[in-house]
C-alpha cells in the first residue's frame, strides 16, 4: 500500500509539471519541494517496514523538519534569511544521516544513503549556483525518477517475496518459529555476559520470527483440524454438528477400513506406582518429556502416524495415509521406532535419578478408522489388531518389544535395516484372546548384534 501511495504522489507531481503549460520555473521548484515533503516519509516508511523498525528509530523528525522549513523559506531564496535557516536545518539533516549510517547493517541502508547523499550534493550545487538553474533542475528530475523507481521496484519485490513466504506458513513452520524463539530467549537469559550488539541482534531476530506468524490463523486452524480429523472426517463432523448432533446422526457416522496396518502400543513400567509416589506436576513433567521425545523420533519415519496418548500409553499406526499396500516399509520403520524409543526413554529419569522403563507391543492386521462421538472429536483406530497390540504390550518384558506371529511371518519376506535376534515365547496368555506364540526383541541385543 505504501508503494502505491508513493507512486501516486510522484505521478501527480509529474503530471502537474508536464501538463501545466504555463508553469514557471519557480512553481516547478516549489512543487518539487512539496512533493518531497510527502514522498520521502513514504520512502522511509518502506525502509522501516522491510527492516521491522519504527520511523522514530531513524529520527525521521530530523528529516521532516528541514524539508518543511525549506517550503516556508523558499520565497526568500538568495537572501540572508534563506541561508541562515538552510544552515540550521542542515544540522538536523546531518544528524538524520548519522542515524541512518549507524543502521548500515540493515537492508537497503546503503542505497538510501546514496539517494539522500545525492540530493544533498545537488542542494549544495543549487544553493551556491555551481551550475545554471536549468541544469540543476534537470539533475533533480533525474535523481527523483531514479530514486523513486529504485525504491518502489527493489523494496516492493522484497516485500512481495515476504508476502509469498508469509502466505505459505504452515503448522510445521509455526513449530519451527516457536522452536527458534524459545532458543533465542534461552540464549539471552543463560548467557551471563551478552554485548549490546548481540542483544539487539537477538531481539531483532526474535521480532522477525514473530512477524512471520500470520494474524489470520484460519488456514493454520484448518490444517490442524485436517491433522486431527483426516480423510474428510473434519467436514463430516462439522456437517453433523450443524444438523443436530442427534444420536441417529452419530450412529450413521462413516468409517474407513484398512488391511495390513501395523499397530504399536507402549506404556511406562510401574506408572501406577510412580503416580502414587510423586505429585501430579512431576508426573505431568515426566510424561511430557517422554511424549516430546517420542514425537521427535516419530518424525524420522514417514510411514508412521501417532494416533493418541492415554495416560502413559502411546499409540502409533502405519500407514493409514498410504496410496498402496506398503507394510514392508512400515514394519521396518515401526521396529526401528520401537528400538529408538526404548533407548531414548533411558535418558529420562525420575526425581530419584532412576531411568524410566517401557514395554512395547506390535501387531499387524485390519482396522477401522473414524470419529467416535460428537463431543471433543478425535480420530480413533479400532479393531482386533489394535486390541492384540495392546495385549502384547501389557505382557512384554521390561524394555523389550513383543511382536505377534503375523508380524514375524511378514519379516521373513521383507528386507530390513537391522538384524534381529528373536526370543520365542510360547503359550503367552493374552486377556480375552487365549494363549499365543510371540516373538521378543531386546534393543540392547540388537545394538550389540549390529555393531
UniProtKB/TrEMBL annotation:
Q: Name one GO molecular function term.
A: guanylate cyclase activity
Q: Which SUPFAM superfamilies match?
A: Nucleotide cyclase (SSF55073)
Any keyword Transcription regulation? no
Under Pfam families, the record lists: Guanylate_cyc
Q: Which GO terms describe its biological process?
A: cGMP-mediated signaling; response to oxygen levels
Question: Which Gene3D superfamilies does its entry note?
Answer: Nucleotide cyclase
Keyword field: Membrane, Transmembrane, Transmembrane helix
Query: What sequence ranges are listed for the domain Guanylate cyclase?
Result: 262-393
The record ties this protein, via PROSITE patterns, to: GUANYLATE_CYCLASE_2
Q: Where are the transmembrane segments?
A: 82-101, 108-130
One of the record's GO cellular component terms = guanylate cyclase complex, soluble
Cited PANTHER family: GUANYLATE CYCLASE SOLUBLE SUBUNIT BETA-2 (PTHR45655), SOLUBLE GUANYLATE CYCLASE GCY-32-RELATED (PTHR45655:SF13)
Q: How is this protein named in the record?
A: Guanylate cyclase domain-containing protein
Amino acid at each position: 500500500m505504501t508503494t502505491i501511495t508513493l507512486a501516486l504522489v510522484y505521478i501527480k507531481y509529474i503530471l502537474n509539471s508536464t501538463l501545466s503549460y504555463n508553469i514557471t520555473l519557480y512553481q516547478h521548484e516549489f512543487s518539487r519541494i512539496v512533493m518531497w515533503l510527502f514522498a520521502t516519509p513514504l520512502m522511509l516508511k518502506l525502509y522501516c517496514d522491510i527492516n521491522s523498525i519504527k520511523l522514530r528509530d531513524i529520527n525521521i523528525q530530523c528529516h521532516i523538519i528541514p524539508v518543511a522549513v525549506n517550503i516556508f523559506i523558499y520565497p526568500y531564496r538568495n537572501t540572508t534569511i534563506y541561508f541562515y535557516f538552510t544552515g540550521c536545518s542542515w544540522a538536523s539533516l546531518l544528524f538524520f544521516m548519522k542515524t541512518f549510517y549507524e543502521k548500515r547493517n540493515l537492508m537497503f541502508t546503503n542505497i538510501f544513503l546514496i539517494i539522500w547523499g545525492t540530493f544533498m550534493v545537488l542542494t549544495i550545487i543549487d544553493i551556491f549556483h555551481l551550475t545554471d538553474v536549468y541544469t540543476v533542475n534537470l539533475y533533480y528530475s533525474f535523481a527523483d525518477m531514479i530514486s523513486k523507481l529504485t525504491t518502489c521496484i527493489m523494496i516492493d519485490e522484497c516485500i512481495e517475496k515476504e508476502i509469498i513466504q508469509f502466505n505459505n506458513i504452515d503448522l510445521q513452520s509455526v513449530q519451527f518459529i516457536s522452536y527458534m524463539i524459545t532458543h533465542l530467549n534461552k540464549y539471552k537469559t543463560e548467557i551471563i555476559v551478552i554485548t549490546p550488539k548481540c542483544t539487539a541482534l537477538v531481539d531483532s531476530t526474535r521480532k522477525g520470527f514473530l512477524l512471520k506468524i500470520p494474524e489470520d490463523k484460519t488456514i493454520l486452524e484448518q490444517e490442524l483440524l485436517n491433522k486431527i480429523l483426516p480423510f474428510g472426517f473434519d467436514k463430516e463432523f462439522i456437517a453433523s454438528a450443524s444438523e443436530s448432533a442427534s444420536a441417529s446422526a452419530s450412529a450413521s457416522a462413516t468409517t474407513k477400513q484398512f488391511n495390513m496396518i501395523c499397530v504399536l502400543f507402549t506404556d511406562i513400567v510401574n506408572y501406577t506406582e510412580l503416580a502414587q509416589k510423586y505429585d501430579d506436576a512431576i508426573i505431568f513433567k515426566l510424561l511430557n518429556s517422554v511424549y516430546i521425545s517420542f514425537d521427535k523420533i516419530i518424525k524420522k519415519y514417514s510411514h508412521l502416524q501417532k494416533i493418541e496418548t492415554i495416560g502413559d500409553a502411546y499409540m502409533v499406526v502405519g500407514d493409514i495415509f498410504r496410496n498402496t499396500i506398503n507394510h514392508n516399509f512400515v514394519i521396518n520403520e515401526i521396529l526401528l521406532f520401537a528400538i529408538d524409543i526404548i533407548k531414548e526413554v533411558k535418558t529420562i529419569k525420575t526425581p530419584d535419578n532412576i531411568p524410566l522403563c517401557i514395554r512395547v507391543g506390535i501387531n499387524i492386521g485390519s482396522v477401522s478408522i473414524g470419529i467416535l462421538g460428537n463431543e471433543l472429536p478425535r480420530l480413533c483406530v479400532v479393531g482386533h489388531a489394535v486390541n492384540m497390540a495392546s495385549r502384547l504390550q501389557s505382557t512384554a518384558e521390561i524394555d523389550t518389544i513383543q511382536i505377534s506371529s503375523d508380524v514375524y511371518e511378514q519379516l521373513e519376506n521383507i528386507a530390513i535395516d537391522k538384524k534381529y535376534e528373536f526370543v520365542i515365547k510360547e503359550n503367552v496368555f493374552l486377556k480375552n484372546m487365549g494363549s499365543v506364540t510371540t516373538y521378543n526383541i531386546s534393543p540392547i541385543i540388537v545394538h550389540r548384534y549390529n555393531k
